What we know:
The chain has 334 residues and is an all-alpha fold. It contains 17 helices and two strands.
Amino acid sequence: MHHLPQTGSKPQDHLSEHLSVKMAKVNALIKSRMASKHAPRIPEVTAHLVDSGGKRLRPMLTLAAAELCGYDGIFDVHLAATVEFIHTATLLHDDVVDESAQRRGRPTANLLWDNKSSVLVGDYLFARSFQLMVETGSIEVLDILADASAQIAEGEVLQLTAAQNLATDEATYLQVVRGKTAALFAAATKVGGVIAQAPKLQIEALYTYGDALGVTFQIVDDLLDFQGDPTVTGKNIGDDFRERKLTLPMIKAIEAADQTQRAFWHRTIRNGQQEKGDLEHAIALMAAHGAFESARSDAQAYGMIARSALHYMPEHPLREILGDLIDYVLNRLH
């Protein structure tokens, strides 16, 4: 794995620079489609989230995949906007489910307005995303993005049932991650190849890249919750533990736990009885069982899968940037 030059420039900035003309069109399309003649609250709520400084990584992945495959039409812009609408809709619903008060350092829509508005505006954005998909005229595109939308919802519901359940294993965790995070990454890259009518091998490679990048991204996020610098991550250390969310390092430590340790996890996660010093003890248990190292090597393995998939893509500056993106995600652990 090569390291990015320490110039302070990030691969997503390079992506943004390379795709700036197309992204301006995506943003204009998003603005025009989130308008509502009859319900002014819709653009108010949507603008709050859309303008909050998110990285727009998913729509950029769609544009990058399409360009990488030689596409020169207009529908990559429609698909990039579709992907962003699906993502924004899931965030609105997520914040209601998680009862979140902050996202990207700003108050959430459900806090500023109410849960009803967040749920209904999320529904509106899903409907808008399907209108945009249909305009491409591709049944295959519709199939991929409809499937991803179902997977995201399925992942959320599975997480509800898996949370606080000490029997949750790594396979279930991966299913949740594939639903919640990787499904949209994989769909975002795959539809770029489909709209460009790329060879089947390249379309599958783009799907594999997006899926593996999404899983890597989530595992790294789980590790940073316990090992990250809060000034960089914007999250407090141990938020997942406090919220009793079973993430990969915890699942690994629970699987290796003896009876006394299981009793600790049962009290803190299953029953939610957390006392002073419990977070530190949880971190010590994860470290003692090698859970952090094991999760880190899992992330690196998925990073390798994503990198291997790029070998099937044509030589192109974007192929390099997509490779750098994998390294950037992994290097957040250093």
